[in-house]
Design a protein that fits this description.
With about 260 residues, this protein is an alpha/beta fold.
């Protein structure tokens, strides 16, 4: 229940920019003391900043919410995006699965496919592939080397970049921090962005996975221009104006249907 409350608080912050303790308590049907504890925990994770009477979402472009926070945020939307993205994979494809909680959900959706080669620099993705697929029969798993980034558990550095440079995949599925009609694809972390740029250059087709909260946003490090992207898969709850602005650049946008709660 706490994770659900935290998701709800972050959703309200995303749309309103500020939350009040009294109003949150009413909406969440919990005491103000519980609400204050929730805000304190979310602040410790870097997801918000507490102010008198409530909290605000005033975060710098390089701020990256912790993986645990992102993992539970908009979970239904992310699974819908992952399912739609998996439909773009054919038997025998060589694909790259980038870091990110949305991309991770693709692994479950690929069960039953045959002859896949899956390249990743993320330990969570690699572990999920090893647990969900018959590696010697249905999937060949290729894990990039490098330095493991704490919390995110993805490889970074020159070794990981060189690994991607030597490969040519059919499709790269990329996770990002923001998708903006002017700024293109951006991410929070400079090292992650550098690796994503190499991956984009090494792929015949580039598919971006981003839930609707990331549309219109611009974060710290540039990854790619929208002209380098073949499609964006987001959820059907995306703001219509933001979607049309992205489509106006020539970007193909796929809206994944989100099941009713």
């Amino acid at each position: 229940m706490k994770n659900l409350r935290h998701d709800r608080i972050l959703d309200i912050l995303q749309s309103e920019g500020r939350v009040e303790v009294s109003e949150l308590s009413r909406q969440l049907d919990v005491s103000e003391m519980t609400t204050r504890r929730d805000l304190l925990e979310l602040e410790s994770l870097g997801s918000l900043r507490r102010v008198r009477g409530g909290a605000v979402r005033e975060l710098g472009r390089s701020f990256e919410p912790g993986y645990r926070t992102r993992q539970h945020h908009a979970l239904v939307n992310k699974k819908a995006i992952a399912a739609a993205a998996a439909e773009l994979v054919a038997d025998g494809d060589a694909i790259a699965l980038d870091v990110g909680s949305t991309v991770l959900h693709m692994v479950d959706q690929l069960v039953g496919r045959s002859g896949l080669s899956i390249v990743t620099s993320n330990l969570r993705v690699a572990w999920a592939v090893a647990n969900n697929h018959a590696l010697e029969r249905s999937v060949r798993l290729i894990l990039a080397g490098g330095v493991v980034r704490p919390d995110e558990l993805n490889m970074t550095g020159s070794s990981a970049q060189e690994h991607y440079r030597r490969l040519r995949v059919d499709t790269a599925f990329i996770g990002v921090g923001g998708v903006n009609a002017t700024a293109g694809l951006t991410d929070y972390n400079l090292e992650d962005a550098e690796l994503k740029r190499v991956l984009v250059d090494s792929a015949r087709r580039v598919i971006v996975l981003a839930d609707s909260s990331k549309l219109g946003h611009e974060t710290f490090a540039h990854v790619a221009d929208l002209g380098q992207v073949d499609a964006l898969v987001t959820d059907a709850m995306a703001d219509a104006e933001a979607v049309e602005e992205l489509r106006g650049t020539g970007l193909h946008v796929v809206l994944a249907p989100v099941p009713a709660a």
